[in-house]
Amino acid sequence: MIPQVRPDIGQEEIDAVTDVLRSSMIAMGKRVAELEERWAAFCGVKHAIAVNNGTIAEMCIFAGMGLGPGDEVVTVSHTFNATVSSILFTGATPVFVDIEPDTYLIDAGRIEAAITPRTRAIFPVHLFGLVADMDPILAIADRYGLTVVEDACQAHGATYRGKRAGSFGHGAFSLYGTKNMTTGEGGFITTDDDRLADWLRLYRNQGMAKRYHHEILGYNFRMTDIQAAIGLVQLDKLERNTARRQALAARYDAGFAGLPAAVPVVPEGRTHVYHQYTVNVGAARDAVVGDMQAAAIGVGIYYPIPCHRQQYVLELGIEADLPDTDAAADGCLSLPMFPLLSDADQDVVIATFRDSVLRHAGAEAGAGGAATGASVASAALR
Ligand SMILES: Cc1ncc(COP(=O)(O)O)c(C=O)c1O
User: Fold this and answer.
1) Which fold has domain 11-233?
2) Cα(60) to centroid of ligand 1, in Å?
3) What tens digit of pLDDT does each residue of 17-48 get?
4) Atom number, ligand 1, closest to the C-alpha of residue 86
5) What are the structural domain ranges in the chain?
6) What atom in ligand 1 is closest to the CA of residue 275?
7) Domain 239-380 carries which CATH code?
8) Which are the contacts of 211, defined by CB distance < 8 A and separation ≥ 6?
C-alpha cells in the first residue's frame, strides 16, 4: 500500500519527546516559548502564539477581533470545515465567494461583490500549499477598512512575492498529523498586532498572566512542551521537507505531461509548498479513484462536499451559487504527497494514474492531446 500522506517522524522527534518526559516540565513551558519565537522569525512576523490546534487558532483570532452576530466574513466554501465553523463560533456569518478554477483559491475578482456594510474581514485560504492572490485582496481590504485573516493551515513556508504565508494579516496554522510540519495536534497564530498578541496570550491561558489572576475571560487552548519538542524538530526539517515535496511535484508534472488532467499551477511570484498535489480529471474522477484504490494507492478527495452544501450550513439558511467550487469538488483528487515518498513508489503512482486517466478521461478530453494546465481543466471538467 502506498499511503496518500505519512508524517516524517523519526528518532529525533522520539528523543526530543523523551527529554521532555524526563524533565519535570511537560505542560506549556520553555519549549513552547522557543517554538513561538522561531515560528515568528520564520514567518517574518512580530508574534507567534502557539495553541492546541488550527481550528482554535482561527476561533481565537475572530474572538480577538470582537466578531459577533451581525458581522460577516468573506471566505471560500472549497476548504476544510474549520474555516467556516471558526467564523460561526463567534456568531458571525460566512459569506462565500467562488474560487479560481485553476488554483482552487479565492477569486479576488469576486470579493467586492460580496462586501456589505456588515463585512469585517476577508479570510482567504491558502489551500493545498499555495498562497492566495494577496495583492488585490490587501487592496480591497484597505479600500473597505477590512481585516485580512489568513487560513494558512496548509501553507507552512509558502511565499507570495517573497513574503511568507501568515505575514499578510493575522495568520492561522495547523500542526495536525498530516500537515507539512506537525506536533500531532497543534496550531499557531501569527500577527504583527501587539495588542491582539497580548490578548491572545491571555485568552489561551484562562485569561491569566499571573497565576489565578484572571484579567479577561479566557480558556485553556495551550500547547504542551511535549508537542513543542516535536515541533522544534519538525521546524528544523521543514525547508528540507518542502524541497522534497517540490521535487516530487516536479516529477509528477513531468510524468503527467500531455495527459487530459489539470496539474497544479503556480502563478508567477509564488512558491508552492505542495501540502497536496491535486489534479482535476473532471467527470473521470470517481473511476480514477477506483483504479488507484484497486492498485493499493492512497488518494484523497479534498473536499467532496463544499462547505456551502453541508447540512448544518444549509440549516443556517446560508446560500451561495458557486459553480467553480462545485466543479472542483466533483473533479479533483489528491495523489500521494509526503517527503518520505520514494521515487520508486512515485513511479508506480505515475504509471497507474496515467493509465487510468487515459482510459477514463482520454476519450472525453481528447486522448493523447498535447494540451496541459487550465485548458485541460476546462476540457476535462463536467
Ligand atoms: C484549510 C484548513 N483550515 C483549518 C484547519 C483546522 O486545523 P486543525 O485540524 O488543526 O484544527 C485545517 C486542518 O485540518 C485545514 O486544512
Assistant:
1) Aspartate Aminotransferase; domain 2 (3.40.640)
2) 14
3) 999 999 989 999 999 999 999 999 999 999 99
4) 4
5) 11-233, 239-380
6) 16
7) 3.90.1150.10
8) none
